[in-house]
Write a structure and sequence with these properties.
Two copies of one chain form a homodimer.
Chain A: H1 15-18, H2 21-29, H3 34-41, E1 46-47, H4 48-54, H5 60-72, E2 76-81, E3 87-92, H6 94-129
Antiparallel strand pairs in A: 1-3, 2-3
Chain A binds a DNA duplex through residues 32, 47-49, 52, 59-62, 64-65, 80, 83-88.
Chain lengths: 144, 144
Amino acid sequence: MYTTPDLRELGGANAYLRDCASRSALDLLANKWVCLVVGALARGPMRFGALRRLLDGITQKMLTRTLRDLERAGLVDRTVYPTTPPQVEYSLTSLGESVGTLLGAIRGWAEEHMHDVEAARARYDERAARPVEALSANAPTARG
Amino acid sequence: MYTTPDLRELGGANAYLRDCASRSALDLLANKWVCLVVGALARGPMRFGALRRLLDGITQKMLTRTLRDLERAGLVDRTVYPTTPPQVEYSLTSLGESVGTLLGAIRGWAEEHMHDVEAARARYDERAARPVEALSANAPTARG
DNA sequence: CGGCATCCTTATGGATACTG
DNA sequence: CAGTATCCATAAGGATGCCG
C-alpha cells in the first residue's frame, strides 16, 4: 500500500518556503527584461538609446523601469555626462557581473536542457490531442 | 531551435535577444510557484494535498496550473492511483532534478549576494529621500 | 537624448462553487 | 481527494504625448 507523507515532520511553520533568499533573488532576476539588460551590459557599458535599439521590442517605459530597478539593487551603475544632448551610460557593477555569471549558469542549463523541455511539451500536447491512447489497463497509470 | 547567443556580434538581427534558450528557460522557471514546487518535490514524491498544505498560501488553482506546466515541460511526473478516494502523486523527473540543481545555484547566489542587494536598495532609497546630497561639482556624476 | 506622466489593454492570480 | 469552471480584482505592460 501507499503511505501518506507525514506533514508533521515538516513543522508547522513552513517558513523555508515563504521566506527564502532564493525567492527574493527570483523576484529580482526572474524578469523578462532584467536578464536581457544584464546580458547586454555584460558586454560593456552602454547608453540608453543603444540599449533600446539592441533590445528590440522593449518599450522605453520598461527599459527605464528595468534600469531603475537594477540601479536600485546595486547591479547597475548610472552615469550622466552633462553634455547637450545629455548622455546617460549604464554599466554593470561587480555585483551585477556576479549576476551575469549566474545568468551564464542559467543559460548553460537552458542550452543543455531546453530542447528536452520542448520535446516533452510536444509529446504532452500530442498526447492531449489524441482522444484515448492505448493505455495499458493496469494501474497505476499516468494521465488516468 | 534556439539561436546561439553570440554577444560579440551586434549584427542588426538581435535575434539572440528575442529568441534565446535562456529566455525560454526563464519563461518556464521564473515563476513564483515553480521554484517552490520543484524545491518541495526535490525532497521526494508528494501528493497534491500535501503540496497544497506545504506551500501554505498557494491556491488550488495555482498549484494545479503549476503542476500541469511542470508536467507538460517534462520536469514532473504525475501518477494516479485509482483508489477511492483517488490519490495523485507528483515527483521530479531526472530533468526536473537538474532544475533542482539549477535552483541550488540560484540559491547559492542569493545567499551570497542578496544582502548586498538589500543594502544597495536601502542606500538608494535613503539617497532618494534626501533632497539634494552634497554632490561633488565635477562631472560626470551619478544621479545628475 | 533620456526620460516622466497618462491612458488603456491584457495577463495574473485569488475566491468561490461544483464534480467524479 | 483532486481536481474543473467561473467570476472578479489587481498588476503588468504597451501606446502616446510632453519636457529639460
